[in-house]
Amino acid sequence: MPFAVYVLGLAVFAQGTSEFMLSGLLSGIAEDLHVSIPAAGLLTSAFAVGMVIGAPLMALFSRRWPRRRALLIFLSVFVAAHVAGAVTPSYEVLLATRIVGALANAGFWAVALVAALAMVEPAARARATSVVVGGVTVACVVGVPAGALLGEHLGWRAAFWAVALVSLPALVAIVTSVPDERPATATATATSPSTGSEAPPTVREELRSLTGRRVLLTLLAMALVQGATFCAFSYLEPLATRVTGLGAGWVPALLALFGVGSLVGVTLSGRVADARRSAFVVAGMSSLALGWSALALSAVSPVAAIALVFVQGMLAFGTGSAMISQVFQLAPGAPTLAGSFATAAFNIGAAAGPWLGGLTIDAGHGFRSPVWVSAALMVLALTLAGVTRLVTALARPDSQKLQLQ
Asked: What is the DSSP track for 334-356?
């Protein structure tokens, strides 16, 4: 495996840490900038909105950019946004830096996945993808709790400085290790493993592949699943400290536990989901609905809350990973944009979830209310899954309508 692929994974680790770390910093940010906790939670939504907008746009723009130059530009902007966020006394400026950082993150993702595929042999592409995407999971296990720990002892600004500093070695390594391939060569290599000569599909052809009803319903269900995940996850710190009664020192450990669960879930999903992906997804969504309800009911119990944080992390990321694979399976004619549309759906949920949770807190329903919203979103996702299966059955010949994947 080329060293450059691990460099891309390191950069994704820093960016994933930035996306998720605010769940352990909300109280500190709210107090320092004199805003409410729901307003601080909107910083997570702002990052997600930037990812939603940036994922498809940057995927389109980066089709013609030299890979190394594009990676350097996106990562440099990401670092600059975090330096600005670390020094600003203004909530509005911090909000703007989250959006800019997210746009840069989306652009980096759009280039990094194709660049990683272009640097390895066909037999190693699955491994290369897992190294890059694995940066997000490692961020949940290590980066997010570390950010919360820094926030507790040195203030929330220290976490922003840490993300910028961790990104600097990746900048240097990209200069020295990532080939500055022209985009046509890289794309052809990634999309034509046998000969390298097949032209990639046009933008119009990719968009056409993504407009099928099953694809759109799956993307919407994915947004609901991620909305449920981030609605609860974004307010995990106040839930743990103000409802469960755990001390602030427990928050990094609790976030790490959620990350460990996510790592277990992604690993199990990759091994189990391929044979019966649709059934796996439905089972995961059903379990998530029950799990969020159980957490809302038993949040006052430290033992139950700690156990359910692990379980829900495992179910959320395992189910989400299987749904991303499902999008690629349903839209094989969109090798470039399928990933960006899945990323956009993921982040639509990440933006809507904290916002909806904040509304319930502002309405006076307490810090358990976001978890109830998560359960309701999962019920909606299950309803959509049923509609998707019905659409699949109606689209198949009579002899196959009962043999859904």
From this structure: -TTHHHHHHHHHHHHHHHHHHHH
CB of 82 within 8 A of CB of 104?
no
Task: Give the pLDDT confidence of 175-212 residue by residue, as tens digits.
Answer: 888 876 655 444 444 444 444 445 667 888 888 888 88
pLDDT digits (tens, 9 = 90+) for 274-286: 667 788 889 999 9
157 alpha-carbon distance from chain centroid: 23
Contacts of 169 (CB under 8 A, 6+ apart): 10
SS3 state at 25: coil
The one-letter amino acid at 254: L
- Whether the pTM exceeds 0.85: the reply is no
- Biggest alpha carbon–alpha carbon distance for the chain: 65
Do 75 and 38 meet the contact criterion of CB atoms below 8 Å apart? no
Compute the Cα dihedral for 173, 179, 182, 183 and give only its sign. negative
CA neighbours closer than 13 Å in the CB half-sphere of residue 197: 1
Q: Which residue has the tokens 């996306």?
A: 19
Decide: 350 and 227 in contact? Cβ < 8 Å: yes
How many C-beta atoms surround the C-beta of residue 125 within 10 A? 16
